[in-house]
What we know:
Layout: H1 2-13, H2 20-23, H3 31-56, H4 67-73, H5 84-96, H6 103-114, E1 118-123, E2 128-137, H7 143-153, E3 159-165, H8 169-173, H9 179-183, H10 189-194
Parallel strand pairs: 2-3
Antiparallel strand pairs: 1-2
Amino acid sequence: MIVEDNLFKDFFINTVEYDINKMMPQICRNRIDKAYHDALNNEIKLVQMAVIDTFKQLFVLHATWGLSEWEKLAGLSESPELDEMTRRGNVMAAFRSTGVTNIERIKDVCKAYTSGDVDVREIPSEYRYIVEFISMIGIPPRIDQVKKMIDLVNPAHLSWDFKYKYNTWGDLLNTGKTAGEILASGKSVKQLREEELTW
């Protein structure tokens, strides 16, 4: 995605703000023509914004109203009821899921939704594997979408499961807080177990 971000940077830097009034000869710089030139300036800005918005639709990570076309291209059904981030994740996962399914492919599918580090542990004797979210605490957001996409790319003969990382009591005590301070923090057990430890 670095290439994409550089394209946007170059495109936005090269987008010039026009002022027709400054481009006109002195004889045309009067209050009558100024109103006309101001209207032209506004129209030029609208065209520039439309061009930039259309340019964004060419990239999955920035697409908004063009997501339905990306979904069609990826072979997915349109899902306008989902939020844009989930729809983008669906498209990215669909593109990443083509080809042979291996550990890297499963990791890519998971990363498309969670943006976190994932480890896949194979258990060949049981014909299954475990997907472990190692860089985030608790259940990642959009986990239902991750499940759907893994089911889509998973070979029929393999089963799979998720393993989540939670804070233990030892993790809480390692923050330097006493048990009394932790309990008095006002956080629920669920928050202490599933959220990043920031004191």
